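Re: [ENG-882] Designed sequences occasionally contain unexpected residues at chain ends

Forwarding the minimal case from QA. Structure tokens:
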């Protein structure tokens, strides 16, 4: 058996290797999140798989062209809050994400841009997260 003094450098080397392996940069910010796409620079990002099931279903309806459960789905989103990149009126469309137990449309929406951008809000436009697809 080796004395502790002789094992210490090997132990330190193993710990450093384990630490470095856990800190490798695989294209995210270290927290498992993808970097924001160019169209959403500076925004937080949410992967489709991290969205609520109802939001994923709404994305499927958007991709399939409907039918949508709410009359206002697909209407122009004005971006009056100014939280999304500035574009001409009509650039963005909004879609309801159903909220279980809500008597009305609730606060959750998906907003899409003409060039394929996708954003999600769960607080009725007070904040958005980019959803790369």
């Amino acid at each position: 058996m080796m004395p502790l003094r002789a094992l210490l450098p090997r132990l330190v080397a193993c710990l450093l290797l384990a630490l470095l392996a856990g800190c490798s940069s695989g294209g995210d910010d270290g927290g498992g999140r993808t970097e924001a796409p160019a169209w959403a620079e500076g925004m937080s990002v949410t992967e489709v798989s991290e969205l609520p099931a109802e939001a994923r279903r709404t994305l499927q309806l958007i991709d399939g062209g409907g039918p949508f459960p709410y009359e206002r789905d697909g209407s122009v989103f004005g971006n009056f809050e100014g939280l999304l990149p500035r574009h001409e009126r009509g650039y963005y469309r909004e879609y309801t994400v159903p909220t279980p137990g809500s008597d009305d449309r609730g606060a959750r929406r998906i907003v899409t841009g003409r060039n394929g951008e996708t954003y999600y809000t769960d607080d009725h436009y007070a904040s958005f997260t980019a959803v790369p697809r």
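QA comment: On inspection the terminal residues look reasonable. The beta strands are 75-77, 92-96, 109-113, 118-121, 129-130. Proposing we downgrade this to a documentation issue.
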